[in-house]
Every structure is written in structure tokens, then in C-alpha cells.
Amino acid sequence: MLDWLTDEQRALRDMAETFARKEVEPFANQIDRDEVTPPELLAKAAEFGLFGLYIPPEYGGSGVDATSVCLVVEELAKASPSFAGMLTVQIVLCPKTVELLGTEEQKQRILPKSATGERLMAYSQSEPGGAANVASHITRAMPDGNGWRLDGSKLYCTQGTAQTYLVMCKTRTNVGDEGYGCLIVEREDEGFSVAPYEHKLGWRGTNTGPIAFDNVRIDPDDVLGDILTGGFSHREANQANLLSHVATSVGCAQGLLDKTLDYVKERRLYGKDMGELQPVGYWLAEAHAKISACRALLYDTARAFDKGVMEAGMASACKGYIGDTTFDVCCKLLQLWGGSGIMDSTGVNRYMRDAKAKCIAEGASEMHYAILANQLLYGKPTLVPANIVKTAAA
Ligand SMILES: Cc1cc2nc3c(=O)[nH]c(=O)nc-3n(C[C@H](O)[C@H](O)[C@H](O)COP(=O)(O)OP(=O)(O)OC[C@H]3O[C@@H](n4cnc5c(N)ncnc54)[C@H](O)[C@@H]3O)c2cc1C
Fold first, then answer.
1. CATH assignment of 122-231?
2. What is the CATH number of domain 235-378?
3. For residues 203 and 361, is the Cβ–Cβ distance under 8 A?
4. How far is the CA of 235 from the centre of ligand 1 (A)?
5. How close is the Cα of 131 to the center of ligand 1, in Å?
6. CATH 1.10.540.10 for domain 7-120
7. From the CB of residue 186, how many other CB atoms can be counted at a distance below 10 Å?
8. What is the C-alpha separation between 325 and 337, in angstroms, rounded?
9. Which of 36, 108, 163, 268 qualifies as a FRET site for 341, CA 20 to 30 Å off?
10. Best probe residue, ligand 1, of 153, 154, 204, 367 (max atoms within 8 Å of C-beta)
11. 285-323 pLDDT, tens per residue?
């Protein structure tokens, strides 16, 4: 499988596999239990160059393609889907958004520090009215002199420990035009606050919680892209992020399958090897087949993405299908562990919980299927209402 990978991609995957086994696996249960990625692992990730993987070399990264990012993230997720999931926001979504929308000054200001992990980043869109339903969002930047004032609050912001936040919100110009922009807010900005994070079912390697803006001053150089359209004009970043996110789902299911195979080979029941029982072998084989199908879909799509020929809606197809399928696989595999799978001490039920969190985070499966349906039916792979940008003259 994946016989088309280049030598460089294979070498990177091997290095990531070793890093995951040696550096991530020993912390995996602790991350899940304590709901935080230990600073020493973040330091090792920085040393390994993980933070700069997808950032162009001129801004301090290694500038690998999306396929390579997926290969690395899949390996990390086999050990800790939670750690891998935390990284995708940091290493793909945020820097790629800055790379696509930013001025040279903004890129020089943000990307080198992101590449070294010196300043962690977060991406905040979701609000109580629905994450994707941007028409319902109330966080808004209103004109103030030569800049803006930002008020409102967001939900479910992953990386509550971040220093730099990319905030999608409603915007207005001083001539009354309205749109949906992308703003840079720094943790130390006056009026910005991060609420205590909430405990969650899975994806516990990073904290996720509400953030709020009370009259936060936004200077013109803190606006990414066009003030009226920046919030939804970085689709390439969203797509690359979805693919890397889906790679964590594949790695999650594969990690649990690997552990389950080891367990079944050792376990004896009713005086015989557990693997001889029906439906044990059937479920293991079915899991392998489903994960292989998901992997084939993911990397076929990622390769097309890197070549610039990905079919519209395919990132959403991957997110919906692979997220749901790998969650089903994890549920069945966990069953084979009997009571020991329910106990935290075996360190396997976290895979099922992480797989479920991944079906919701970055957009619920149904929402991604709605995007795909819009593409199939109307030729538009989007949920963004066409009337979100309004000119005062209209
Ligand atoms: C662990 C975690 C981390 C997250 N991190 C971030 C983050 O860093 N930044 C951020 O902005 N957001 C983040 N989110 C929010 C996440 O993107 C949303 O939770 C997700 O998109 C679902 O939106 P919602 O919670 O508003 O659910 P709703 O929009 O209320 O949807 C509820 C349910 O309705 C169904 N549904 C929704 N839309 C449709 C549709 N179009 N068609 C059919 N059915 C639909 C689905 O079953 C969905 O689960 C995170 C969420 C989680 C769980």
C-alpha cells in the first residue's frame, strides 16, 4: 500500500514512527489522565521539528507537503491520538492560514516563532449558535479610528494555552460594509480572556474552552487578509487541516488494532487461543480492511491535494467517512478487551474516546456530508451563506 510514496516521505514516516514509540507512547496515558501535554514532550516535539513541518523554509520550517504531514501525524496518533490532534491545529491550520492571508510583515512576525513552538497558536470560530453557522455568530469587530474594537465570545477553543489566536468573526468597515474576517489576537491583549477549560471525553492532550473579547483593540496589522472576507478565504488551510485531522483518526484506529492484535495473541480463553474464537478473528480482519480502505482514501485525496487536483468536497468526504468508520472500528476492537478495555489501566479505552471526539471536532460528520451534498447537488462545496458579505450601498 502507498507504494507511490517518495523516499523522503518514507524516511520521514520512519522517523515519526520512532519518535512516537520512544517519546510519545511513554506519556500517552498520562496525557489522557491529566488532560495536558507535558512541557517536556512539547520541547521534544520542537527539537524534532514537528512545529515547523508545514511552514515554508523561508519562515523557519521544513515546508513538507500535506501528504508528509499526514504520514507523520498518523504515526503520532498510533501512540497518542490526543497529542496528534493537538498538533494538527498548531502545525497546519494556524500557520497555513497566516501563510495564505498574511502580509510579509505578519508572516515574519508569526511564522518563525510558530515553527520553533515558541508561541503556540489557536484557531477560534465556534460560537453557541453553531460552529459552522456563521450567520448566527455574534462576535463582532466594529470600526474604531484606523482600527477596530472586538467584542463577543467563542466556544471550544482548542489550545487554551496558546499565545496567538486567529479569531474568525463578523466585521464592519467604517463605510458600513459587513463581512466575516480573520483577526490576530495576542494572549496579552487588553480585554482578552481565556476561561477555565472544560473536562472532556477525548482529545484531552490540549485544553478546550471559551474565550472572550471585551473591547479588544485590533490594529490594521492584526487583520489577516481582507477585513470582510478573511474569515472564509483560506479554504486551502481548512482542507489541509481536515486531511491531517483525518490522519489522526486513521492512526487512532491503527494504534488500537496493533494493541488489540498483541492482546489477542497472548490471551487464552476456554483453554484455547482467543483468536480461534468467533467473531474475534472476523472483527480483527474487518478492522484491518476498514482501516486500509480509510488510509487509501485519505492518501489518495492528500496526494491530489498536493498536486492541486483534489476534487471539490473530498476533504469533507474524508472527514465524514473516515471519522465515523474509525470510530466504529475502535468500538468493536475495544469490545475484544472485555472488562480490561473498560479499565483505564490498560490504556486502550482512550482510543475509542479520542475517535469519538474526532467525529465532532473540526466539524461534525453530518456537517461535512452536508458540504459534500451541496457539491454533488449544486456544485458548491460550502455552507457559508452567500449573503454574509454586505455592502452598505446595496
Ligand atoms: C475537542 C474539540 C475541539 C474543538 N476545537 C475547536 C477549535 O479549536 N476552534 C473552534 O472554532 N471550534 C472547535 N471545536 C468546535 C467544533 O468545530 C464544533 O463542536 C463542531 O463543528 C460542531 O459544532 P457545534 O458543537 O456547534 O454543534 P452544532 O452545530 O450544534 O451541531 C450539533 C449536531 O447537529 C448535526 N449537524 C450540524 N450541522 C449539520 C448540518 N449542516 N447538516 C446536518 N446535520 C448537522 C450534527 O450531528 C452535529 O453534531 C472543537 C470541538 C471539540 C469537540
1. 2.40.110.10
2. 1.20.140.10
3. yes
4. 18
5. 5
6. yes
7. 13
8. 19
9. 36
10. 367
11. 999 999 999 999 999 999 999 999 999 999 999 999 999
